[in-house]
From TrEMBL:
The protein's name in its UniProt record: DUF1330 domain-containing protein
DUF1330 domain: residues covered: 2-95
Organism of this sequence: Kibdelosporangium lantanae
Cross-referenced InterPro entries: Dimeric_a/b-barrel, DUF1330
Domain of life: Bacteria
Length: 112
């Protein structure tokens, strides 16, 4: 099942390290089937607050997503971004094509 890396990055001034990070990140994703699906700060905010940008990277599965994040190649470049842009990052499983939230609620209600 597809998994996603989702980051909420706060506003920051441009920095040469961040440019280098961006120039190098795709090479760290390639071996794990990762690809950018969303990368930007232009969005239509409908509820709450969202300072900064959102990044969504898709992976074939959670195993690949975890392996990418923990890889020596990504860990090497991570400080280039993390030292200059505050943010949050999660890895999360997607849902399958037959996912139905009503079925999920029925299971929760029944205790199974």
């Amino acid at each position: 099942m597809t998994a996603y890396g989702i980051a909420h990055l706060r506003p920051a001034a441009p920095h040469p390290d961040v440019f280098e990070y961006l120039e190098r990140i795709q090479a760290t994703l390639d071996d794990f089937g990762g690809r950018f699906l969303v990368h930007g700060d232009k969005f239509d905010l409908k509820e709450g607050e969202w300072p900064g940008a959102i990044v969504v990277i898709g992976f074939p599965d959670m195993t690949a997503a975890r392996a990418w994040y923990d890889s020596p190649a990504y860990q090497e470049i991570l400080p280039l971004r993390a030292d200059h842009i505050a943010g949050d990052l999660i890895l999360v499983d997607g849902v399958g094509p037959d996912y139905d939230p009503a079925t999920m609620v029925a299971k929760i209600r029944s205790g199974s």
